[in-house]
Structures are given as structure tokens and as C-alpha cells.
Amino acid sequence: DAPTCAGFVAIAGGWNHSVGLRSDGTVVTWGSNRSGQRNDAPTGAGFVAIACGSHHSVGLRSDGTVVTWGGNGRGQHLDAPTCAG
After folding, report:
1. Rounded distance, CA 48 to CA 3, Å?
2. H/E segment holding residue 66
């Protein structure tokens, strides 16, 4: 079920999962967890943007780092940039 609390500044939807970005920079996930879309989601604040693919999600932190989670069947995590700035 989708969260019913307020404070979201962005949402994104994948195939069977969704991600919300709260105004405090934290990420909330809901929906399917078949590929780790929920359990593998990052904790903590500092996110400024989010996006979803079919079975994976991507978050951008305020320091410019990219965080990926969920399915990795096509290298979604391996190909993510690891440098900031």
C-alpha cells in the first residue's frame, strides 16, 4: 500500500513498485519487492532526486553520488557512475 503521510516532493513508478522522495531527503518505497525494490532501498537522508526503471530504482544524493537498488539483471548497478563532482 502507498504511504498516506504527507511531505513528498517527488514520486516515481516502476513496473510494480514506487518510490517517494520526502522533503527531508529520505526515500520511501512501496509495492513489489521481487527484485529487492523495497528491502534494498537506501536509508538516511540526502536525496534530491529519484527515478524508477522496471525492476530497479535510482537516487541522486545532494553530493552528486548516484545510488541504485533493486533488480540488476542488465547491469543496472554495475554501470552506475561512482564519482561525484
Report:
1. 19
2. strand 66-70
